[in-house]
Amino acid sequence: MKESIYPCLWFDGKSHEAADYYCSIFPDSRILNKTPMVCVFELGGRKMMHLNGGPEFTFNESISFVISCESQEEIDYYWSALTSNGREGKCGWLTDKYGVSWQVVPSILGGLMSDPEKAPKVMYAFMQMKKFDIQKLMDSAL
Fold first, then answer.
1. Which residue segments constitute the domains of the chain, with CATH numbers given?
2. Among residues 86, 129, 126, 87, which one has the least CA distance to residue 110?
3. Would the pLDDT of 3 be above 80?
4. What is the dihedral of CA 93, 43, 12, 10, to 10 degrees?
5. Phi then psi for 68, rounded to 5 degrees?
6. DSSP SS3 for 27
7. Is the pTM of this model over 0.85?
8. Is 57 left (phi over 0), alpha (psi -120 to 50) or beta?
9. H or E, element range at 38
10. Pairing, β 30-34 against β 93-95
11. How many CB atoms lie within 10 A of CB 139?
């Protein structure tokens, strides 16, 4: 399937370094093309582009990438990899060393939040967390 819409992230001279870093973290990732100005790659099988655009624009939390995780081990892996030289946030949010925001969330969260009786308890539980803890979320839903 040809992807006609894909994200382009603006970096200040570190687009190639960032693409290599992300490809080392996510399975099914590879560099497709590098030029001095851009790097096109697949991240988790999805096409992306990084641009060496200069310092005029920076990242903020208004745009983030969501990583839906099936297990606590997967959450722990991505959290550890992406907070290395980055910053932990709250409720599964983090900012990596390049300033890109990520949400590392358990795939069960949507189901827990769609139950009107469980949702307030689950929300209270995850509001106390930085990195999501699946067992604590499950316990809060009881």
1. 8-52 (3.10.180.10), 64-140 (3.10.180.10)
2. 126
3. no
4. -80
5. -85, 120
6. coil
7. yes
8. beta
9. strand 38-43
10. unpaired
11. 12
